[in-house]
Specification:
alpha+beta, 50% helix, 6-stranded antiparallel beta sheet, 25 helices, 7-stranded mixed beta sheet
């Protein structure tokens, strides 16, 4: 069983590591993924061993808040609520930061002689206490809560740094004579404004983080914004606009030009063109008519039509995509284990370094004032936040951008595996090709074509359906047939309007005594036609290659990938398709089990393999591959079929996903490298007195923001195939 838990109070990688460790050590938990960006934990557990209440208690025992999402709340509603909460939190933090900066600047701008007046120092003490109690309340409360549970996090570092600065300044204010060893016997300096500025920078940094976090979820908000709030429902012949929540399955809805589709359904009257670009990444509007399925949130561009509601709420395509994206963005990439290991010892190490810094300065005879200033700078400048944000921000932005391009990547692990792919295995039918045979050539005149179409009309063979569809498109007469006889695998014999009509392969016609019937060795489907004992001509039926397949395969090769065509079709057909698509390696005539064996063989040779298939017949091969791509369309998609799901059928999405994963992993490495380098350089600089506590607090805030901003560069990723 898998459960999502909302975790409150996490502010850095150390917080995340504490919660992660608590869940991992809980009996009955098989897997847990705690995400700092989303403030959630995805927990897989055995309900016979542990229940939800115990999981919540395990998190609360570490000093953090934990609660389950609201009952009966859809993924769309939950994300909308989260967006509102993040926006409110960002505004609150910006206000607190602004007030703190103004008061801190006012304190620094005061005349020099005021700084040595008792009344002004007591005023500063009161102002500083107000800022600490108002703007910094959560920091001190969080530090105290984690301390009482035997842990420490970023809140503890900030609380210690500002607390030391405030308490030292208060002691100097109350008993200046004790510290009167500096300033030529005058009153020693106080650091109230330093404490205020530190909190101001921390608040500003967290506000920018919240705003940046909201930007990472921009794709989700766009998807959610697609769904209109009302629907035009026709009940008992009367049209009325009702809230979308009141639409029932089976209701008939009316959609006019320019309106968005309220819920999923099937057209029952009329036709139009729908803009499905936000779901499929395909800019060209799709034609829809009676019987076609349509997706809630897509845009009606031209005609009016009526349709019947089929999928509502969490069962709708849009809700499933939102839920899948949220699950992906809450997942963790394997590279985060490095950050976890560092974060687990980070805060205790920083506390120890701060103590050593204070002791070192004291031993060198520099006095308590300078020793305390350097120790406070060490506490403030240390930043586990950047390490905690380095990977999840990249995952969130990448999965959101992928969804905008019609590619659903199921989390950090799939993203990280994708960049290691060196071999792409492709199914033929429905993957490289359109999966819908159609007539591409015929030597028959229209009157003979009408007889052939009538003969094939009674057959269920896919090639027969293609011939009938072609005849209808040519507007030839639809004739009736009698005395239908079918020989499976060979052809049909039918009486049509007084004529004997034979349609089938070369062997069938020759056995029937027809002279001149030859298929010329063409690997495509050739239907030979004879009328009244004489050869009349042929119809060539083929499953054409998708428009973007050749360009996508060229992109695979440009990325340095080996491409393999793996199909159950016969060798000649497979080779013809491979030659047309530009694929050198072909494995044909294999059953589903054979596809699994071929992928396993490639893996044993040391290759990292991606498999693209239709998600149904190729399910075993998709499961065997290191990364499985489930091909489909926005309405017929098997959401759980692979590691990556393509909302638009076609290989362009596979190339885009691989290119996006490579860009994302580069960003992850840059973020982790920056976060580690920052701390390696900044902490010794603070320890040796090169950075004041105020400068340290500004640098700490910017380190986290820079990591998030670097991840947001992925929003500009654009790979067109």
């Amino acid at each position: 069983m898998t459960l999502t838990i909302n975790v409150g109070g996490m502010v850095c990688a150390t917080c995340q590591a504490h919660v992660q460790k608590a869940l991992d050590q809980t009996e009955g938990v098989s897997q847990a993924a705690v995400n700092l960006m989303t403030g959630q934990a995805q927990v897989s557990f055995d309900p016979a061993v542990v229940d939800a209440a115990h999981l919540l208690e395990a998190i609360r025992d570490t000093g953090y808040e934990a609660e389950l999402p609201a009952v009966n709340q859809t993924a769309i509603e939950e994300q909308t609520q989260r967006d509102y909460e993040q926006a409110t939190e960002a505004r609150d933090l910006f206000v607190k930061a602004a007030v703190s900066f103004v008061l801190g600047a006012a304190a620094m701008a005061a005349p020099e002689h005021w700084m040595h007046q008792n009344w002004f120092r007591y005023t500063l003490a009161a102002v500083t206490f107000f800022i600490m109690a108002w703007a910094g309340r959560r920091i001190y409360a969080g530090a105290w809560k984690t301390a009482t549970h035997g842990t420490a996090d970023m809140n503890a570092l900030v609380a210690l740094g500002t607390g030391v600065a405030f308490l030292y300044s208060l002691a100097v204010t109350v008993s200046p004579a004790i510290f009167a060893t500096t300033s030529q016997g005058g009153m020693p300096d106080v650091y109230y404004e330093a404490a205020i500025f530190i909190l101001a920078f921390v608040m500003a940094g967290r506000a920018m983080e919240e705003r940046a976090k909201r930007q990472t979820a921009g794709a989700l908000r766009k998807l959610i914004g697609l769904q209109p709030s009302t629907a035009n429902v026709i009940r008992n012949g009367v049209e009325s606009a009702i809230p979308i929540a009141n639409v029932m399955r089976g209701d008939v809805l009316l959609v006019r030009p320019g309106e968005r589709i309220p819920v999923d359904g099937e057209i029952v009257e009329g036709s139009s063109f729908l803009d499905e670009s936000m779901l499929t990444g395909e800019p060209e509007a799709a034609a829809k008519s009676v019987g076609d399925a349509i997706v809630g949130g897509t845009l009606n561009t031209t005609g009016s039509f009526r349709y019947r509601a089929t999928s509502l709420g969490e069962a709708s395509v849009l809700a499933r995509i939102v839920a899948l994206m949220r699950q992906a963005q809450s997942s963790r990439a394997p590279i985060e284990r490095l950050a976890d290991r560092i974060s687990g010892v980070f805060v205790p190490t920083v506390l120890a370094l701060a103590i050593l810094t204070f002791a070192g300065w004291m031993l060198m005879g520099h006095g308590a004032l300078q020793a305390a200033g350097s120790a406070v700078a060490v506490l403030i400048i240390a930043c586990p936040c950047a390490m905690g944000l380095a990977v999840p921000t990249a995952v969130m932005v990448a999965t959101g951008r992928g969804a905008e391009l019609g590619v659903l990547i199921k989390g950090g692990e799939a993203l990280e595996k994708l960049h290691k792919i060196d071999t792409v295995v492709l199914d033929k039918t429905g993957t490289i090709t359109e999966g819908k045979p159609r007539v591409v050539e015929t030597t028959l005149p229209d009157d003979a074509l009408a007889l052939a179409a009538a003969a094939e009309r009674a057959s269920e063979h896919p090639l027969s359906r293609a011939i009938v569809a072609y005849a209808e498109k040519r507007s030839v007469a639809m004739l009736g047939a009698t005395d239908f006889h079918s020989l499976p695998g060979r052809g049909v014999r039918v009486r049509v309007s007084g004529h004997d009509v034979l349609c089938g392969n070369e062997e069938f016609l020759r056995e029937s005594g027809i002279v001149g019937a030859a298929a010329s060795g063409d690997p495509r489907g050739i239907i030979l036609v004879a009328i009244d004992g004489a050869f009349a001509g042929s119809i060539t039926v083929a499953d054409p290659i998708r428009a973007e397949s050749t360009a996508a395969i060229q992109e695979f090769q440009r990325l340095g990938l080996t491409v393999v065509l793996l199909t159950g079709d016969r060798e000649a057909t497979a080779q013809a398709i491979a030659k047309q698509a530009g694929i050198a390696r072909v494995v044909a005539g294999v059953l589903p089990a054979g596809k699994v064996d071929e992928i396993r063989r490639l893996q044993q040779e040391g290759h990292v393999v991606a498999m693209a298939g239709d998600g149904v017949n190729d399910a075993p091969a998709l499961a065997q591959a290191d990364v499985g791509f489930a091909m489909g369309s926005g309405t017929e998609i098997a959401m759980e079929a692979g590691d990556v799901t393509l909302l638009k059928a076609g290989l362009g999405g596979v190339a885009r996903a691989i290119a996006l994963s490579r860009a994302t992993v580069r960003i992850m490495h840059q973020n982790l490298g920056w976060a580690l380098a920052y701390n390696v350089i900044a902490i010794p600089s603070a320890a040796f007195g090169f950075l004041s506590p105020v400068i340290a607090s500004a640098a700490m805030a910017m380190s986290s923001v820079s990591v998030v901003l670097n991840s947001l560069r992925l929003r500009r990723f654009n790979k067109t195939i």
